[in-house]
Amino acid sequence: MADYLLDTNVLILHLRKRPQITALLTRWGEEGALYISVVTRTEILAGMHPHEEERTMELLDSLTNLAVDKAIADHAGRLIYQYARQGIQLSFPDALISATALHHDLTLSTTNPKHFPMPELRLHPLDVE
């Protein structure tokens, strides 16, 4: 069983009460560990609705939050540099999230796999409609 790093969009779907996402996260949490980058934490808090604060904080605090250290920051910078030379623009948050998943050997779960073109990154794309 893989341990998962959850992208921001996955948490948003859970907070918006998408039952299939909630069921999946529950199952994964029972089978392994669920992680977020502190970057994801920042993105979630920045977009939170005022009436969601208590539920959002409970969710964020229930997950293992992974800090950005020097190694992750360096890797993210190198990813941005490497992909820019190929004409691919990575966002700063996505580069940090990718580097975190790679550094901790986690599978990244996202609804936006195109944002994460690294072949060495294990992705679990979610197709939600």
- Overall 3D form: globular
Q: How far apart, in Å, are the first and last alpha carbons?
A: 26 Å
Assign the CATH class.
Alpha Beta
Q: Could you give the count of β-strands? A: 5
Q: State the secondary-structure class.
A: alpha/beta
Strand adjacency order, main sheet:
3-2-1-4-5
Write out the CATH superfamily name. 5'-nuclease
User: How is the CATH topology named?
Assistant: Rossmann fold
Backbone CA Rg: 14 Å
Biggest sheet statistics = 5 strands, parallel
| pLDDT averaged residue by residue | 96
The residue ranges in which pLDDT falls below 50 over 5 or more consecutive positions are none
Count of helical segments? Answer: 6
CATH architecture: 3-Layer(aba) Sandwich
Return the string of H and E elements. EHHEHHEHHEE
Count of structural domains: 1
Strand content: 5-15%
Sum up the structure in keywords:
6 helices; single chain; Rossmann fold; 129 residues; alpha/beta
Write a compact overview of the structure shown.
The protein has helices at 8-15, 19-31, 38-47, 53-62, 70-84, 92-103; strands at 4-6, 34-37, 64-66, 107-110, 123-125. By secondary structure, it is an alpha/beta fold.
Describe this structure in words.
The protein has one domain: 5'-nuclease (Rossmann fold), CATH 3.40.50.1010. It is 53% helix and 13% strand. A 5-stranded parallel beta sheet has the order 3-2-1-4-5, sandwiched between helices. The radius of gyration is 14 Å and the shape is globular.
